[in-house]
Design a protein that fits this description.
With 213 residues, this protein is α/β, with parallel strands linked by helices. It has one domain: Alanine racemase (TIM Barrel, Alpha-Beta Barrel). 37% of the residues lie in helices and 18% in strands. Strands 7-6-5-4-3-2-1-8 form an eight-stranded parallel sheet. Strand 1, helix 2 and strand 2 form a beta-alpha-beta unit. The longest helix is centred in the C-terminal third of the chain and has 13 residues. The chain is globular and about 45 Å long. The relative contact order is 0.16.
Amino acid sequence: MIKENILRINDEIKDYNAKLICVSKTRTNYEIMEAYNVGVRDFGENHVQELIEKRKSLPKDINWHMIGHLQTNKVKDLLKDKVFLIHSVDSIKLASEIDKRTITKQDILLEVNIAKEESKYGFIPEYNVIKDALDKINKMNNINCIGLMCVAPNTNNPEENIKYFNKLKELANKFSLDVLSMGMTNDYLYAVKCGSTYIRVGTGIFGPRDYTK
């Protein structure tokens, strides 16, 4: 099932400038290796400790993406080894901590609360807010903001998220940012059509999660 799902998704997005991140939260090393053996090298984790444990035991050529909410007190542990990309930088305070703790130049994305939902993190999707954040980050020495990320609303009609994906794309264009992390299991096809460069898919690859494990 894992192999078939990955091949199907890659076929669906092959005509777009988008790469698949397999969201491996709660998944076993065996499941991750099934995806790895199909050729996937980009895996996304939501929790620092889980990423650290998997990073120790899985192949060293995996690109680990931190895609979940990152607390400043977890940054030191996360950055003891290489993280390919941190998607969820939602404050200047967090950016400063990453700048302080990273062992190499660290690529990041700004998380934008694209629908202004109270339950989600991120910068407000307004030009002046994003400009101010980028101005401050560009003065830091050890991090490099290469794009924007969002978590679109959870909806029964994923087509509704097109307006949010387009809004994030417009913001990125205003600041000449090339990387857009948007689109998940339910709406990635709409996201890639709107310019997403990373889609984050978990259940669409591995099936429903068992949180009792």
